[in-house]
Amino acid sequence: xxxQCIYFLARSExxxxxxxxCFVLNGVIFLGSILLFNFxxxxxLNVLKRLVQEEEAWATDFIARSSTSCKVFWIYPIxxxxxxxxxxxxxxxxxxxxGFLQRAPVKSTPHLERLIQETWRxxxxxxYLLEMYLVSLPQHAMLQYGLSxxxxxxxxxxxx
Length: 160
Known about the structure:
Subcellular location: Membrane
Protein name: Protein EI24 homolog
Membrane topology: Multi-pass membrane protein
Main location: membrane
Organism: Durusdinium trenchii
Largest sheet: none
Number of domains: 2
Number of helices: 5
């Protein structure tokens, strides 16, 4: 299998270019953003939270929420863009590889239709993430306020 990948990479400039684009998009931008958040933004927010913690409770809450906001408004949009762009690039890689095998390419889906399908998939993933967040709220709240019996009931019916 690996020798076939090397064969296609050696022969096709399109495959090399799209593979490099996928690597840059996923490796540098997406993982770089996660690493930047985990090793720069979040520690800075934690330091700020410790500095402000003694003075104002509302500021501590604001700082805690800004971590979630950063994930929602930075990481998830990057994931969505990466998801859609990768689909287009993967299709071009597959079409080029199929051309090298000298097989007639299957009629590919138009770009607009593929974009609509991937946008729908991103929205479905967002709804799933929101559902998981909402389902986890009652258990965390119950455990925080010491309602152990209710938490056990929720835990029984909603396994995590």
